[in-house]
């Protein structure tokens, strides 16, 4: 099925380091969403972006909606052990385009204390 | 406010059987979407319901079906189960489906087909 290109696939970092991950698409999206998923649980919404160029923060997390509407990035500053998990980007079109969430493949983050 | 709930959390079935999964959205949310998550294919959209009507459908065979009730609760059914149907099935609810609303996920139902 259709997917976004999310990179990197995995990251191993030291506690306190900053993290950056991004998603690109050949399609335009009206909304970008970033989720975090812990093992055995459903994805939890971290940040929602609605406008091209929008930069939004949620605590140590910052995400941006690319100007072309075909990409987005997520930054995590000063990582801590509880940041461990899989992060997904998701693009949302409008109803006429199907209106379904298209997900990236995920970035698995490991944080070493 | 309670989150999205899914039942059961775990299910084991054998090939050829059928299964029904249930999802209760966040109170006030009228849209429910279903996704299948597997290690190989990631998160794939199954279908979306709004006001008891299926409005969007992903690329899954007709063995996968769903419905939504007047209280916005939704069920999905998989008939004639295959080994490849083993997956985490997630439902997500949103307030109004206009393409610009966040979707909130439940914990999922882990289906194992033997």
Features:
heterodimer, A: 6-stranded mixed β-sheet, 5-stranded antiparallel β-sheet, 0% helix, 52% strand, B: mainly beta, 7-stranded mixed β-sheet, 11 strands, globular
Most extensive interface between two protein chains, with residue counts: A-B, 30 and 28 residues
Q: Count of helices of chain B?
A: 0
Binned strand content of chain A: over 45%
Question: Average pLDDT value of chain B?
Answer: 92
Low-confidence stretches of chain B: none
The SSE string of chain A, one letter per element, is: EEEEEEEEEEE
Number of strands of chain B: 11
User: What is the structural class of chain B?
Assistant: mainly beta
Q: Main β-sheet of chain A, in a few words?
A: 6 strands, mixed
Distance between the termini of chain B: 37 Å
- In total, the number of strands of chain A is 11
Global Rg of chain A: 14 Å
Q: How would a textbook summarize the main sheet of chain B? A: 7 strands, mixed
Radius of gyration of chain B: 13 Å
Structural class of chain A: mainly beta
Detail the poorly predicted runs of chain A.
Answer: none
The total count of helices of chain A amounts to: 0
Q: How does the overall form of chain B come out from the CA principal axes?
A: globular
- Order of helices and strands of chain B, N to C? EEEEEEEEEEE
Give the terminus-to-terminus CA distance of chain A. Answer: 37 Å
Walkthrough of the structure:
The complex is a heterodimer of chains A (113) and B (114). With 113 residues, chain A is mainly beta. Chain A contains no helices and 11 strands. In chain A, the strands form 2 sheets. In chain A, strands 2, 4, 5, 9, 10 and 11 form a 6-stranded mixed beta sheet that branches. Chain A has a 5-stranded antiparallel beta sheet with strand order 1-3-8-7-6, with no helix packed on it. The model of chain A has no long low-confidence stretch (mean pLDDT 91). With 114 residues, chain B is mainly β. Chain B contains no helices and 11 strands. Chains A and B meet through β4, β5, β9 and β10 of A and β5 and β10 of B.
């Amino acid at each position: 099925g259709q997917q976004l290109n999310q990179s990197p696939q995995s990251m191993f970092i030291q506690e306190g380091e900053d993290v950056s991950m991004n998603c690109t698409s050949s399609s335009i999206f009206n909304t970008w969403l970033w989720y975090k998923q812990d093992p055995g649980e459903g994805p939890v919404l971290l940040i929602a972006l609605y406008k091209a160029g929008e930069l939004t923060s949620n605590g140590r997390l910052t995400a941006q909606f690319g100007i072309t509407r075909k990409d987005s990035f997520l930054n995590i500053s000063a990582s801590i052990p509880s940041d461990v998990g899989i992060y997904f980007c998701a693009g949302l079109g409008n109803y006429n385009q199907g209106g379904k969430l298209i997900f990236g493949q995920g970035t698995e983050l490991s944080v070493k204390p | 406010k309670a989150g999205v709930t899914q039942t059961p959390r775990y299910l084991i079935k054998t090939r050829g059987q059928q299964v029904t999964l249930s999802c209760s959205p966040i109170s006030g949310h009228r849209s429910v979407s279903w996704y299948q998550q597997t290690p190989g294919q990631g998160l794939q959209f199954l279908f979306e319901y709004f006001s008891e009507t299926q409005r969007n459908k992903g690329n899954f065979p007709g063995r996968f079906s769903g419905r939504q009730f007047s209280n916005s609760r939704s069920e999905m059914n998989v008939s004639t189960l295959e080994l490849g149907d083993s997956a985490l099935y997630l439902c997500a609810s949103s307030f109004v489906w206009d393409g610009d609303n966040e979707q909130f996920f439940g914990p999922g139902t882990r289906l194992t087909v033997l």
